[in-house]
Amino acid sequence: MGPDRPRHPKKEWERLLRDAEVRGHRVTKKRGYFRVWCRCGDNVESIPLSPSGRRTLLNKTKRLQGWSCWEPEEGATP
């Protein structure tokens, strides 16, 4: 977890945010949501504080995994 980033209130979502950080992506907190910025600068995804439905986590996870830069950087351990 980044030094300035608060935790997501839902543990499943926090796990997704931490996974993104381990892979070298930047996570920032905004009002009502988090932002995941890819390390290559081509992608940005919003992560809600209060998800709209049961499939939201699955959909966001698949969207992040679809990024060409989702795989960890060399030397990083996911």
Give an overview of the whole structure.
It is a single chain. Helix content is 28%, strand content 19%. The chain has two helices and three strands. The relative contact order is 0.20.
Attribute tags:
globular; 2 helices; alpha+beta; 28% helix; 3 strands
Distance between the termini: 13 Å
**Percent of residues in beta strands:** 15-25%
Could you name the ranges where pLDDT drops below 50 across 5 or more consecutive residues? Answer: none
As a whole number of angstroms, the C-alpha radius of gyration is 12 Å
Question: What is the helix tally?
Answer: 2
Give the integer mean of the pLDDT values.
88
> Helix-strand pattern, N to C?
HEEEH
Derived from helix and strand composition plus strand pairing, the structural class reads: alpha+beta
Fraction of residues in H or I helices? 25-40%
